[in-house]
Amino acid sequence: MKICRKLLRLKNSNLLFFFSVLIFTNCSKEQKKEDFIARVNDSYLTREEFASLVDTTNLSPIDRKQVINNWIFNELLYQKAKDEDIIDLEEFKNIMKTSSKELAAAMLLNNYVSSEDIKFSDSDLRDYYEKDKNYFQLNADSYLINKITFDSEDDAIKFRSLAIESDWTKASNFFSSDTSIVSKTEDELIQGNNLYPYQLMKIAKDMYPGEISIVVVESDGYYSVIQMLGKYEKGTIPNFEIIKYKVEKRFLAEKKKQLIDEYLKELYSHNDIEIKK
């Protein structure tokens, strides 16, 4: 079961993910599960296995539902493919063979990079930002916002009233343990066309810094409130403090790529390799 869980942590490639699903399906059929989140015929998604599919630390109810639905759809398709003997086709077996090598390679690189401690400071990130500022230029009008979403309209209204009467931080602290909160983000720089739902995007265009929006009804009975912190036109390069998390993400991605390149060179130099013309 430990191997099965570890395989599912690598989900970047659709092909590798499908291969992981097949392994996961076989693992889940080892015995009938009593404590499970979802079931498709004789295949069970237990809480332990669900935790191996996704980081549940800050998982919203919407994301949780999506992960479960994805598992169900994949399971339905796999079981149907099995009924139609897809997994017995030579083409399928060849893909599985190739995928197993790719998955093993991906796991090896993931383990290697994870074992390496990449040390850096704020000064390193700032130097990286200054060196390549143009990369962080905005390609669309963007907003710096606070956003909170509830599954209760009454709580959303109460939060908004408290935020207006005092301030957003005090309201956020007061509601910190409220179970009706679906998601919450602070100081997030988001492109206008990525601000959901559409009504919220329209409202944001006319808001001024510090203003708190009305309660906006989203799909599936969710209610959102945003606070406008700042507006940034297309082509603007935000200050380092505003996009520090993006700078860090790109900085680490480049450092990991360098580690992988060096690791591959080392492997290449220590193995017998021949390429014929």
Query: Whole-Å distance between the termini?
Result: 45 Å
Which class do the helix and strand fractions yield? alpha+beta
Strands ordered across the widest β-sheet:
4-3-6-5
Helix content: 40-55%
Beta-sheet strand percentage? Answer: 5-15%
C-alpha Rg (nearest Å):
24 Å
Count of alpha/pi helices: 10
Major sheet description: 4 strands, antiparallel
Outline, from the CA principal axes? globular
Question: If you had to describe this structure to a student in words, what would you say it looks like?
Answer:
- The structure is a single chain.
- With about 280 residues, the protein is of the alpha+beta class.
- Helices cover about 50% and strands about 15% of the residues.
- The chain has ten helices and six strands.
- The chain has helices at about 1-5, 15-30, 45-55, 60-85, 90-115, 120-130, 155-165, 170-175, 200-205, 245-270, and strands spanning about 35-40, 45, 140-150, 180-190, 215, 225-230.
- Helix 2 (about 15-30) crosses helix 4, helix 2 crosses helix 5 (about 90-115) and helix 7 crosses helix 8 (about 170-175).
